[in-house]
Amino acid sequence: MTARHHDEPAPSPLPDLAGRTLGGSVMAASDEFFAEKENLIKPEPPTHRPYTFAHRGQVYDGWETRRRRGPGPDRRPGAGDADWALVRLGVPGVLRTVVVDTAYFTGNFPPACTVQAAAADELATPEQLAAADWAEIVPRCPLTGDARHIFEVSDPHRYTHLRLLIHPDGGVARLRAHGEPVPDPRPLAGLSFDLAALENGGAVAACSDDYFGSPTNLLAPGLPRVMGEGWETRRRRDEGNDYVVVALAAAARLRLAEIDTRHFLGNAPGSAALRAARAPGAAAPPPGAWTELLPRTALLPDTRHRFRLPADAGELTHVRLDVYPDGGVARLRLLGEPTPDGRRGLALRWLNALPPGAFVRTAAAEWGLPAGEAAELAAARPFTRQPDRLPI
């Protein structure tokens, strides 16, 4: 665990899969007497106004439970007592870093926390999740007040829900769950979709500058509410230009690009271009791998631009957005159809990332495999090709 002051830079370039921006939800909590559970996943940093009281006490920008009382003469809570909050990830995926931020909680922070994860139906209710298989991805660890606690996660499996336990009670400002999205390929079968979208498995592979806004914002769902929810670079004073490289969710043939400068008025790029490459498995293709997808084209401020892409561009895995010379872009959409190899890649990634129990349940429900046969398949992972018995 690493502890940092809450106003230090964010610990990970990976998206926050629990965040409200990606559709995360705090489904239930054992208690929220002093401050609401929904504050845990707000996208903005926590704030504080001292001596601001409501009818239940000082107002905190976080989740805060009442003081637990035990049965003994001094009513102290027991060693096993804990409050909990149940979070549905906005985008299921493999978690790499969990952040428990106790910003502004000083005399009322929990002494320790535990984080658990489950792979369940995304529409499961809190009552159904109570019986889920919960894996401990962050064992019980001490916390301090007014600090961002960063926990590295080594579990390689895809999860849909988190449960934050605080021992025995207290307040937490924010919970972040940074990781790599792993979409379920079944709803996408046979469809065209946005190959750049985070929720579908798109990712930022490289970026020249992110001084004012993260390039990950380009791939977020929905429309930005303000300029700060886009990607923005500092002002260039040289002859170069800024760029971002996107690794597509799967190898695909692209049909339509959308470059949205919404909310960027005096700081939109003057023009932009798109280049594409086919480099399976590469973090970012080498300089000579790129071909033109959209020639350098003038952009307007605060405008949604849509461009048909050439039909002969072929199978692509990466797209590079160049902006000239600098500025901000709110969203980048890249619509198309995965190739057969691309669809197989999506399926393999999902199958290999399922926890063993979730794999066995899925194999039984989807393909009618006996539990023993499904367990043998689960143990034989990672697959390098899709088994014939699993027709996704």
What does this structure look like?
This is Probable allantoicase. It catalyses: allantoate + H2O = (S)-ureidoglycolate + urea. Pfam families: Allantoicase. Pathway: Nitrogen metabolism; (S)-allantoin degradation; (S)-ureidoglycolate from allantoate (aminidohydrolase route): step 1/1. Residues 1-22, 62-81 are annotated as: Disordered. This protein is mainly beta and 392 residues long. The protein folds into three domains: 2-181, Jelly Rolls (Sandwich), CATH 2.60.120.260; 186-338, Jelly Rolls; 354-392. The chain has four helices and 22 strands. It has helices spanning 126-129, 340-353, 356-367, 371-379, and strands at residues 2-5, 25-29, 53-54, 57-58, 63-64, 83-101, 112-118, 135-142, 147-152, 158-167, 171-172, 174-181, 193-194, 203-207, 231-232, 242-260, 271-277, 291-298, 304-308, 316-324, 328-329, 331-338. Strands 1, 2, 6, 7, 8, 9, 10 and 12 form an eight-stranded antiparallel sheet that branches. Strands 13, 14, 16, 17, 18, 19, 20 and 22 form an eight-stranded antiparallel sheet that branches. Strands 3-4 form a two-stranded antiparallel sheet. A hairpin with a 2-residue loop joins strand 3 and strand 4 (57-58). Helix 3 (356-367) crosses helix 4. The chain is flat, with a radius of gyration of 23 Å. The protein starts with a strand and ends in a 13-residue tail after the last helix. The model has no long low-confidence stretch (mean pLDDT 93).
Give average pLDDT, whole number. Answer: 93
Q: Give the class from helix and strand content and strand pairing.
A: mainly beta
**Regarding CATH, which class of the largest domain?**
Mainly Beta
Percentage of residues in DSSP E strands: 35-45%
Give me the CATH fold name of the largest domain: Jelly Rolls
Per CATH, the superfamily of the largest domain is Galactose-binding domain-like
CATH architecture of the largest domain: Sandwich
Domain unit count = 3
For the CA atoms, what is the radius of gyration? Answer: 23 Å
Query: What is the approximate shape?
Result: flat
Distance between the termini: 39 Å
What are the low-pLDDT stretches, counting only 5+ consecutive residues below 50? none
Tell me the number of helical segments per DSSP (H or I, 4 or more residues long). 4
The number of distinct β-strands equals 22
Oligomer state of the chains in this structure: single chain
Element-by-element helix/strand order:
EEEEEEEHEEEEEEEEEEEEEEEHHH
**Largest sheet: number of strands, sense, barrel closure:** 8 strands, antiparallel
Helical fraction: under 10%
